[in-house]
Task: structure prediction
Amino acid sequence: MPRNWRFALHDRGLVARLASDLNCSPLLAQVLAARGLKSREAANIFLQARLADLHDPNLLPGIAEAADRVVAALRDGRRITIYGDYDVDGMTATSILWRCLKLAGGTVDYYIPCRLEEGYGLNSDAVRKLAEEDPGRLLVTVDCGCCSVREAEVARELGLELIITDHHTLADELPAAACVVHPRLPGSEYPFQDLCGAGVAFKLAWAICQRLGENGRATPRLREFLMSAVGLAALGTVADVVPLVGENRVLVRYGLDAVLQRPFLGMAALLAVCGLQDRKQLTAEDIGFAIGPRLNAAGRLGQARLAVELLTTEDRARAGQLATYIDQLNKDRQSVERKMYKQARELVGRNEGWLDRPVLVLPSSEWHPGVMGIVASRIAEQYERPTILIAVNEADGVGQGSGRSFNGFDLHGALSRCAPLLLGFGGHRYAAGLRIAADQIDAFREALAEAACDPSDEPLDEPHLAIDAEVSLADLTPRAVRELDSLGPFGSEHRRPLFATTGVELLEPPSRMGNGERHLSLKVRQGSKVLRAVAFGRAEWAEDLAAQQGGLALCFAPQLNHYRGFESVEMHLVDWRPAAALAASAPAVS
Result:
């Protein structure tokens, strides 16, 4: 489906004044204005985000009681078990709290459920097992549990003290835990409600450190820990694709530096296998495309405990072994993912009628449950609609599904309207999981299509590209593009700046590159300016681009490429069209 190019309107006088006031390029000034930062004061507050802008952790609902209970357990010498999720958010949340409690001298361990055998979240069998081993322990969930009403009741019946910390969408009924920590509890007035699980765990660790210090301030040793733990919180925040605004942006901005400057042993080993150990600066993309996928691979293939061990080990040799093994798991995951993506596209091709519906539901008995989410995300982007993949277990007739949203669609809300057809579901607006009887999948597909068209919902905008400015290639100097990085880190709901340019010509036919030749490399010229452009995951554009006789209009994000000590501007191509087609249609504006 072609996407509209929606150009931001610019007041040239305002842009010139911003560029002068901030001593920056017109390129940066245009982006600031396009994103509503139209005064020197507003721009400086955004550009100079500080750690001091993080909110007092004690404002987070439930956290004061949770921190008091944890500190009491520490002082009583009780075992504290952290129950984490098996994705990067859960792994980093577990590691933050484990390191905090270890540093405080606690007896602490962790339990990570096996994705393939136990599924997501707190489960009753695990609760019973933990209570049988040590009924006096304190059980603290991270990144899960807010919908575990039955499991919390099991813990209560067994006399197990349970603290739940989570950020996922709440159910109508809260679990009867000793306390629940969640930024969106009913009546919450917490100023920022989009923390991920690692962000919530970081806030809990911070509150615990305050109580273990003097006069509400953490000791120097605990403060140093918190400065390092910001790096783990950044990993979870980026990998969980929560909005990279507000507190999340601050955590990631400073966490990226912490990952490089204050790395734990396992993180240093992970940077090495990613080839990032000599970088002077990390980006959120480094987490999203290099670090996060390797950690996630362990969880997707049923070995999340090894990833948590990597993030918590104090043994340098063990850290190296684990990092190498997890890197291999990621290669295995990539192979499985490529096969599943091909099968999913073939399935759509055999059932083209499914594209008449606003949501795709794709079942198969051949799919690996641990890789469905990432493939669902790729299919959602490919077909521009929310997508759910379901791995069907033919032995018991039950399907395990993973879905990803598109264009802001509330996936969790739509699933809640289909709840009678499901054995269970959970997640949030942008990502969700479910369990369903195989014989209900067709009915579920129809019901989900109806739920997606509910007239009571706020209508979704047409898919479009919000372009910050129209520029010439000559504007893309290394200095100007470097200035754009001051807007970062970039991620969900705070994307890299997008620009458009027209009258561009190809110097040579596009070439395919990368594993499976999924990506394109192009060399383009506008006047005397020549730049390289890459189009990730868009190999199918090659023939159409090569066949164009006239000039091209390109929509792209500029980035700096560092190779063998040289720095150059590179265009990451997002969309294109014949220049004549763009000129013939009045561009949409916002």
About this structure: The radius of gyration is 25 Å.
